[in-house]
Amino acid sequence: MAACNDYYYATRDPLGSAGDFTTAPEISQMFGEVVGAALTDVWRRAGSPAHAAYVELGPGRGTLAADALRVMRSAGLDPDIFLVETSPTLREVQAAALNGTITHVDMIDALPGDRPLLVVANEFLDALPIRQHVDGAERHVTLTPAGLAFDRDGTILETSPARDEAVEALSEGLVAVGGVALVIDYGHARTAPGDTLQAVREHRFAPVLADPGEADLTSHVDFERVADIAREAGAFVAGPVEQGPWLERLGIQARARVLANASPERAGDIEAARARLCRPDAMGSLFKVLAIHSPEWPSPAGL
Ligand code: SAH
Predict the structure, then answer these.
(1) Measured in angstroms, how far is the CA atom of residue 48 from the centroid of ligand 1?
(2) Tally of domains within the chain
(3) Angstrom distance (rounded) from CA 167 to CA 112
(4) Which of 125, 132, 254, 280 is a good FRET partner for 92, with 20 to 30 A between their CA atoms?
(5) Which ligand 1 atom sits closest to the C-alpha of 2?
(6) Structural domain includes residue 261
């Protein structure tokens, strides 16, 4: 899964209608704007520390960062930008989408250790590799005459050492320098068995073992596990809450009205995007928002 996704992301921009999948920031500017407002608010309540950094994990096209930073700057917060991104292709797209001082790093460990961090990770953890286990034995992929196949079936438990390490490094970083992270992803609030590995290509589910490296491989994030790891690292946690109610509490409806009044010809599209982000039968319920923050920082709003 790691090798497939490394290759997949390094060799294309997979986002948007011409690509394989569409994420919340690509649906509407309102998503990134709400994130920017939430970060600005918590930064102010933390005493408006100078030199806070904006950090994004897996920033895709840089759309979320551009929308969030526009709101932050209009409110007097102009952070340096640190992007954790391994794909050379997407690094270029991000640099073109953003202005300001941008530093790309490969790993969370390489983030600055001398200033508070305002972190966003949208659909990042789901792309990190998982392991699957059946009756206590790890499920492997084998090569058969018919192609790739799983070597066992049954009730599946998923673990993700890579995800655990990422959350631990992030939480330790926040505890060391202060700050907050908004982790947004699809997944479940409680640890549960189940096979959630999926491949998406051209906006449809694809067989997970077909065409390795040519589809987006993800799995659902176990938010109970993420929260436990963050707490073990000494951080505080708020949430998870469902994305729809979170966006609504932070005022997405009011923002949609302002945008629709400014561009009446786009009012229908704006309302459709708001509904897609918020409705329980679209992205509003499956997607969750969890905040991880250093003990001396307040919790972000809406959680
Ligand atoms: N957050 C963006 C993109 C999500 S796609 C959005 O919401 O639109 C996943 C992103 O994570 C891509 O930018 C991908 O290149 C990056 N990524 C995947 N695996 C990674 C890894 N191991 N280290 C760093 N970045 C990774």
Answers:
(1) 29
(2) 1
(3) 16
(4) 125
(5) 22
(6) no
Rounded CA separation 181/117 (Å)? 8
Return the closest-CA partner of residue 181 out of 128, 232, 239: 239
pLDDT of residue 12 exceeding 90, the answer is yes
Question: How many angstroms is it from 208 CA to the middle of ligand 1?
Answer: 19
Q: What's the CATH number where 87 sits?
A: 3.40.50.12710
**100 pLDDT more than 90:** no
From 12, 20, 86, 221, the mutation candidate for ligand 1 (largest count of ligand atoms within 8 A of CB) is 86
**Residue 194 is part of which domain span?**
2-248+288-293
Give the model confidence (pLDDT) of 216-275 as tens digits: 999 999 999 999 999 999 999 999 999 999 999 999 999 999 999 999 999 999 999 999
Give the binding-site residues of ligand 1, using a 6 Å CB cut-off.
Answer: 5, 9, 15, 23, 25-26, 58-60, 64, 84-87, 90, 122-124, 127-128
Burial of 157 (0-12, 13-18, 19+ CB in 10 A): middle
For residue 123, give the ligand 1 atom closest to its CA: 4
Distance from residue 136's CA to the centre of ligand 1 (Å): 30
The answer, as to whether pTM is greater than 0.90, is yes
Q: What is the pLDDT of residues 29-42, one digit of tens each?
A: 999 999 999 999 99
Residue 120 has pLDDT above 90, yes or no: yes
